[in-house]
Design the sequence.
């Protein structure tokens, strides 16, 4: 049976000049796990909203062509009716929680279907166990963290065992561990229940191994519809921004075929004789730490010093001494944190959901005071919070910030636009301009960013990495809380890993991100941390060195 | 303000009983003019909230409601000309004409202010101890859409509070001059509308649009259900019986008159004691959601 069938479908949002979906024809069969790839604004989210019935029933607009979900015509059946066969999860889980407790949230879709109390109780328990939220069942939903909300919203989407699950960036707020767990769970649901899954995701390296098929969207059209290997081959030629780091690593090293995941990449390297016997192959170790900038931010100079400069610097952009945050009646969030950051240093702050990253940034920026300990800074601290929309209060982009600040983030051309009409990446840059300010304010000694790449495509992340690199070159230190190891590798000299409110690792990015299972880039996982290579270009250089050692003709 | 789930006997009682208790507590405030009875309702609401672990929420509601009550108390003698005991002649005032402040009008203003305070605190008690999800479940069998609309209106308050806090933090992080209040209000309003649209979309994809009549959940009555239901009945009986018996009668016009005898004091004491007595029994206390889940599990 066909779960989703679109036939020459064109959809235009109300008042939009260009269609969001343009002459799209595709079929998703029952039991398939399909990944939707594409840059921001390519039509992925609109396609998912169409399949859930929100387009056109909630968003309005005009639809031409045919769209059927499990045989139901989308134009005739609204989202309420389609909810009997679909489960949907969209980008921001906070807007999708409607009940007071997790248990009630999970029960709500089943109650709406008129299920019996026994079926509701069983459905709630099973969904909670499957998503790992059983311990949260009695918790009020307003007290959940972003990652917890994401899992609860997903559990609510799955609780009715829908035939078709529609997911729009479900891992965007999850740490790498939870993100991998979620993809594994989706694969299990797909294999054991035969659930059809349509998953839009920017971090393709995380989900391609689980996918049966990849549909790449561009400008509202289907640009590629192939299996994961076929998609990667297409991406290499036509959309490099969609290539996974592993595929790029091998392509740059002159090896093929493009690998779908770490295991395949290692198999290709092994067969080519380019894989170190263990994680510290002698040839690779001799090559020393390498810090290429290929994937994200080519052209950005970054210190390759294995010793974090903060430790040798006499002047600090930030200094934390024994900082504790102990809310009344709740466990401590920060536990005696000591941290120093030198001017111009770029530090990535990583850790699981709830580790204390956002709390640390808020205290550094002075939005809250620690219970104990001391925070001193070398000047003004600018903080870019998670949601750029919170900064936007004017009717015109030009009113939000002075022209020179707008120019600094490359948005001068948008001065007359409404801020809400900008894309996600552009809003992020505008919010950055707002917190940085123009020449009328003191330049920040430290810029803190809280999950700045949430929901961003790879190209926008690269733009942001370049922008941050330029800023750091002027002496502003960076402290970036992120769940994205690839972005951390692109922007940071140094990585601090936070767990349960205290740093558990603090070192050069090449040391911290090359040595882990989860908090590691795909390149580092493929090469098992060899040579401290974090990005595809650095990895490819090491692979070529390895090949040259084994096959001298490669040198020529 | 939103329900704060804690392990108190009142939180362990079913939503219908919680609603009944709050309504019963508000009843004397509607039936009596006696400051003694109105004061008793205020004390009872605060004490019940404190006993249920919602003292902070009630205290906050009290602080918010006090200025409102004060304004009522001060305005009434300025706009009411009833009463015979003039305590101040303020002369001619535009719109109001000759303003003579009477003792009776002043006292009646205090009565009105106290009544407003008592009703606000009863509402605050309801918001703090009754689970809106259960209220939705309770009333959706009668009118699903109305119940959901009312419950979501309650739910939007903490959501918008959180949005407002986030936005305030973001504005503190701005490098330049702070935006005008008008711009902020406009942005907050636009954000609230966006949020409402998001919530509507979430409801649709959870199947709300085609909601069927929900199943009836027959959970057995717990000791706390029975105790608080008895307290609510007692409050209704006290209010209606006291009113019919003329206990704690009080009037302001044309001259102050009322009963301040033992009967009035006994009635006030009983109003305070009735909702508090069930808190003496703390056996089997668990959050209501867990109890309901257990009831479902038994089926």
Sequence:
């Amino acid at each position: 049976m066909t779960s989703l069938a679109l036939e020459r479908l064109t959809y235009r949002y109300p008042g939009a000049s260009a269609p969001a979906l343009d002459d799209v024809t595709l079929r998703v069969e029952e039991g398939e796990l399909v990944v939707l790839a594409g840059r921001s604004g390519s039509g992925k989210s609109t396609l998912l909203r169409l399949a859930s019935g929100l387009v056109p029933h909630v968003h309005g607009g005009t639809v031409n062509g045919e769209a059927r979900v499990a045989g139901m015509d989308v134009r005739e059946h609204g989202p309420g009716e389609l909810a009997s066969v679909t489960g949907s999860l969209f980008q921001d889980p906070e807007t999708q929680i409607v009940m007071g407790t997790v248990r009630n949230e999970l029960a709500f879709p089943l109650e709406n279907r008129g299920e019996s109390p026994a079926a509701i109780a069983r459905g709630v328990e099973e969904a909670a166990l499957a998503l790992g939220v059983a311990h949260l069942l009695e918790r009020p939903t307003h007290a959940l963290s972003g990652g917890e909300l994401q899992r609860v919203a997903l559990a609510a989407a799955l609780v009715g065992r829908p035939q078709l699950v529609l997911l729009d960036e479900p891992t965007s707020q999850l740490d790498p561990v939870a993100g991998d767990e979620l993809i594994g769970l989706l694969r299990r649901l797909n294999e054991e229940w035969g659930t059809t899954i349509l998953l839009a995701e920017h971090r393709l390296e995380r989900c391609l191994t689980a996918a049966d098929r990849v549909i790449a969207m561009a400008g509202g059209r289907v640009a590629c519809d192939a299996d994961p290997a076929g998609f990667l081959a297409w991406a290499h030629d036509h959309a490099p921004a969609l290539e996974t780091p592993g595929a790029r690593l091998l392509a740059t090293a002159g090896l093929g075929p493009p690998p779908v995941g770490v295991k395949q990449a290692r198999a290709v390297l092994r067969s080519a004789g380019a894989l170190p016997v263990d994680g510290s192959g002698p040839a690779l170790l001799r090559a020393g730490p390498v810090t290429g900038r290929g994937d994200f931010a080519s052209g950005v100079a970054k210190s390759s010093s294995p010793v974090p400069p903060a430790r040798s610097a006499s002047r600090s952009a930030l200094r934390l001494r024994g900082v504790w945050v102990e809310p009344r009646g709740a466990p401590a969030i920060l536990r005696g944190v000591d941290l120093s950051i030198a001017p111009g240093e770029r530090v990535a702050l990583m850790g699981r959901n709830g580790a204390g990253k956002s709390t640390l940034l808020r205290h550094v920026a002075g939005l809250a005071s620690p219970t104990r300990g001391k925070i001193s800074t070398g000047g003004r601290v600018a903080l870019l919070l998670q949601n750029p929309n919170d900064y936007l209060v004017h009717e015109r982009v030009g009113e939000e910030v002075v022209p020179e600040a707008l120019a600094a983030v490359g948005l001068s051309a948008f001065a007359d636009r409404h801020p809400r009409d900008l894309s996600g990446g552009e809003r992020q840059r505008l919010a950055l301009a707002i917190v940085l300010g123009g020449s009328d304010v003191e330049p920040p000694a430290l810029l803190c960013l809280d999950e700045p790449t949430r929901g961003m495509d790879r190209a926008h992340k690269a733009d942001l990495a370049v922008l941050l690199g330029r800023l750091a070159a002027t002496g502003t230190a960076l402290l970036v809380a992120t769940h994205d190891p690839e972005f951390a590798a692109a922007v940071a000299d140094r990585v601090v890993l936070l767990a349960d409110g205290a740093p558990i690792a603090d070192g050069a990015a090449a040391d911290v991100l090359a040595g882990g299972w989860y908090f590691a880039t795909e390149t580092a996982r493929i090469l098992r941390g060899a040579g401290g290579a974090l990005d595809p270009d650095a990895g490819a250089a090491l692979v070529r060195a390895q090949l040259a050692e084994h096959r001298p003709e490669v040198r020529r | 303000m939103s329900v704060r789930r804690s392990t108190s006997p009142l939180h362990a009682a079913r939503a219908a009983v919680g609603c009944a208790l709050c309504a019963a507590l508000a009843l004397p405030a509607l039936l009596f003019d006696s400051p003694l009875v109105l004061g008793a309702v205020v004390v009872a609401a605060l004490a019940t909230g404190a006993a249920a672990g919602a003292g902070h929420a009630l205290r906050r509601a009290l602080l918010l409601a006090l200025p409102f009550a004060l304004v009522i108390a001060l305005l009434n003698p300025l706009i009411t000309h009833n009463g015979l005991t003039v305590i101040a002649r303020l002369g001619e005032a535009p719109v109001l004409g000759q303003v003579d402040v009477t003792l009776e009008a002043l006292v009646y203003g205090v009565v009105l202010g106290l009544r407003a305070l008592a009703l606000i605190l009863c509402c605050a008690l309801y918001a703090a101890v009754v689970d809106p999800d259960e209220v939705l479940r309770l009333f959706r069998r009668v009118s699903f859409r109305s119940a959901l609309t009312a419950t979501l209106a309650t739910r939007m308050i903490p959501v918008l509070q959180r949005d407002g806090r986030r936005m305030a933090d973001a504005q503190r992080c701005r490098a330049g001059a702070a935006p005008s209040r008008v711009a902020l209000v406009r942005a907050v309003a636009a954000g609230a509308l966006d949020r409402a649209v998001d919530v509507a979309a979430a409801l649709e994809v959870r199947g709300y649009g085609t909601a069927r009549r929900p199943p009836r959940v027959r959970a057995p009555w717990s000791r706390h259900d029975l105790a608080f239901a008895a307290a609510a009945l007692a409050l209704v009986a006290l209010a209606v019986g006291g009113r019919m018996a003329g206990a704690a009668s009080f009037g302001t016009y044309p001259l102050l008159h009322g009963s301040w005898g033992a009967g009035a004091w006994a009635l006030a004491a009983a109003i305070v004691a009735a909702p508090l007595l069930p808190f003496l029994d703390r056996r089997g206390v668990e959050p209501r959601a867990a109890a309901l889940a257990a009831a479902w599990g038994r089926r």
Notes: The CA atoms of residues 290 and 533 of chain A lie 6 Å apart. DSSP finds 21 helices and 19 strands in chain A. Residues 2-239 of chain A form a domain with the Rossmann fold fold (CATH 3.40.50.300). Confidence is low (pLDDT under 50) at residues 279-295, 297-313 of chain A.
